Amino acid sequence: MKTEPEKHILKYGTRRIEYNLIRRPRRSMRIVVLPDLKVYVYVPPRASDGQILTAIGKKTRWIARKLDMMECYHPLPVSKQFISGETFKYLGRQYRLKVSNGKSNQIKLKGKYLCISCNAANNRAKVKKLVEGWYRTRAKEILTHYVSKALDTAYRHGIPKPIISIRKMTRRWGSCSSSGRITLNIKLLEAPLDCIEYVIMHELCHLKYQNHSKGFYTLLTRCQHDWRKRKETLDKMSVY
Predict the structure, then answer these.
(1) Tens of pLDDT along 217-235?
(2) Exposure of 28 in the CB half-sphere (CA atoms within 13 A)
(3) DSSP letters along 27-73, please?
(4) Where are the domains of the chain?
(5) CA 126, CA 132: separation in Å to the nearest integer?
(6) Domain 137-234 carries which CATH code?
(7) What pairing do the DSSP bridges indicate for beta strands 93-101 and 113-118?
């Protein structure tokens, strides 16, 4: 069952926060705050108005903090044009794109530049394809390596081996399904390595706890004692 969003107002002090309530076939409530400052609340079909208001009330402060954080990214970045001079992030550092004509398609890091040589330097679609392909290849290599590294710690705490997939995600750095599949966002390649390690360990811990309970955070702390510092750095980045 899918319904159209219902618009509601949430009061937090003197603030009035508009949110979109959507009923979906799911077991629990989920709140999403988007970069455009829109708030969506997804709830099970049979949740009562009282249950919804109580649950949202417990998350009001969190919603307000998220909105304040998202405002830091405004105005939102424009879409990449894939032309020389644009900035691209890779493992926490910024690189300038340098596109030149060449007989064959090549892409590599050189100093502070992400250099592309191709036989159609003015073809933005082709340059985009090369850049995205490079990120996919590097993501598979780097994320797979750090998953293997994290598993050495995870196994010692009784965390089972997951199924790993790597793809482009629009709202999350990573996710873990109840079936034991962990999905990692290609965009993680823009973050520093310690943040990548944090996301991987966070999702691995969800293999034992499919929630953010006290038990989950106790396990995460045992596996990665400085995860809060890593998360603080990651929270300053936008997943979009």
Answers:
(1) 999 999 999 999 999 898 8
(2) 6
(3) SS-EEEE-TTS-EEEEE-TT--HHHHHHHHHHHHHHHHHHHHHHHTT
(4) 6-71, 87-133, 137-234
(5) 10
(6) 3.30.2010.10
(7) parallel
